[in-house]
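User: As part of a screening pipeline, I want to sanity-check one entry by hand. Below is the sequence and the SMILES for calcium ion. Please return the complex as structure tokens so I can compare it with the automated output.
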Amino acid sequence: MRIRKPHAGIRQGIDVFCTDFGIGVPQDGEGPVREVTVDPFLIDPFGVTNESFCEFVRQTGYITDAEQFGWSFVFHLLVSDRTAETVTGSVPQAPWWLAVPGADGRHPEGLDSGIDNRMNHPAVHVSYRDALAYCNWAGKRLPSEGEWEFAARGGLESKKYLWGDELMPDGKHECNIWQGEFPMHNTASDGYVGTAPVQSYSPNGYGFYNMSGNVWEWCSDWFTERRAGHQNPGVRKREWRR
Ligand SMILES: [Ca+2]
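Assistant: Here is the complex for your manual check:
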């Protein structure tokens, strides 16, 4: 399962048909495997880009939560020396996340950063409220966790990764994650210290990109270790759009 956050995971456009399937990464509290049934749904083949999110803001005048709060968390290796002097705090149990004044979707690493050369990268610093507002504008909705898992697998079953059992088949990177010693040294051998464009690496069996790695993405429902398998828990029928 992916931890979901600063990026609206709305994907729509390709039919995925219903089935029963298992979920399970025990060390993340995701085991034992249980089955969830999902009905047919549409999901975008890649994440919401800065370009799309900026168009939403341009048309609606929407102000994101990060803009209203005046700050957001930024990974420490991405913060400039100048911005580092303005940091107001960090996450106690994850001190590599720094509270940076002025960090928001248009200034992902603080006021001295921008997205002009990253319009095809995923939108970041997106709160759950922001994600729902984008969905409402776009005529879409967030996927449930069950739908996300189904879409991410791309037709494979019981594989360690979305593309198979090897992290780097034939020595080739398949997603944007960390290489090196976390959290101080990132070799970026996959090409990126921060975000990658939304259509980086090979798509999965359904043609979906970056279903693993790159950014955390929102789903509509909460993850819980105690949830038993049942009918697609995060979606109410009246919300469905096809
Ligand atoms: Ca990387």
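Points to compare against the pipeline: The CA atoms of residues 124 and 228 lie 32 Å apart. The pocket of calcium ion is lined by residues 176-177, 188, 190, 192 (CB under 6 Å).
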